[in-house]
What does this fold into?
Amino acid sequence: MVELEGMEARLFREEARAWLKANFPPSLTNAPSIHFVSDRRAAESNPDWCLWRQRMAEKRWGVPTWDPRYGGAGLTEAHGKIIGEELAAIGGFNPIRSYGTMMLGPTLLEYGNEAQKLEHLPGIATNERRWCQGFSEPGAGSDLASLQTRCVDMGDHWLVNGQKIWTSGADQADWCFALVRTDTSRKQSGISFLLIDMKSEGIEARPIILISGSTHFCEVFFNDVKVPKANLVGEVNQGWAIAKRLLQFERNSLSDVKAEITPLAPLAHEYCGTDLLGRIDNPDLRTRMVRNAMRHEAYLATVARLTRESQSGGPSNGVSALKNLWSGIIQDRSELLIELMGANGLGWAGDPYTDAEREATRAWLHSKAFSIYGGSYEVQNNITAKRTLELPA
It folds into this structure.
């Protein structure tokens, strides 16, 4: 990534800062953006979120580096970085961020044909077309290559039958990018990558209730679903390579959510009080908060280093290590947040808990999933061992 320097960087930062200050709704400050990513109904019922999405879509800063033909602003990675930094500085978030921007969009830019890009990317760039990911199946999670959802060539269309599971937002999604089996005699080389309209006849999405109270995961059933031939991305039986690239983008996005970090110190001052020196009045808690903050800073430095190393090749194999590092940081942070809130951090519903306290409880429970989604800890460690450290099998 080419860094902006001197006057150019300062002027753009001032422009970004002024625009964000004038347009970001104060009511959304430090709001958990993942809540809006995973729950379309909650997002669209919030008028300030809708206004913020509209403003960012019109500014094209939701995907600032995408080509204007596809809904982006045509800016450089360096401009995008400044926008992200200024958003984080005001406790803001990108309302366009979605599974489309994090996973499918970058993948289509590399593997999609021009018709597919023009059809799907502008809707992703405004967050008006929501996507879900049809990868995992009841018998194919960590061993994704064992998937069994069948896709048969019917001449003028594809016919899809099978089941997916742990599909985030499937009941609220407009489209699904799915891996399907087009050759049962081979494993990885018998898989294709398909774009499926969720309004197609024969699709049923059933929400799954999680321990956090969230229901953003679904089971999805495909029963004789007809899919146009034009919805195949890449070549038949070549979907595994596309999926691996998409998973790199997914892990990269999971490890690139620094804008969602809310400083713990102000909350610790509020709940735990301060000593005579103005420090958080619990030395052990203070030490662990500092350790978490130091790991976060080290993580950000590693992200910056890997970004520079992969200037020409996009996300590197290092994203697997980053994904695990980030999962540990956010899980420790969730534990610290619950601890400093004390009994107030155990709220589930109603009084006397505030909205922030109830959200902290649910976020703590949800954080347990960070070890699994996007690829489990063990799978990521195996990737790091083989591809980054080049250790023997």
DSSP finds 13 helices and eight strands in the chain. The longest strand covers residues 217-228.
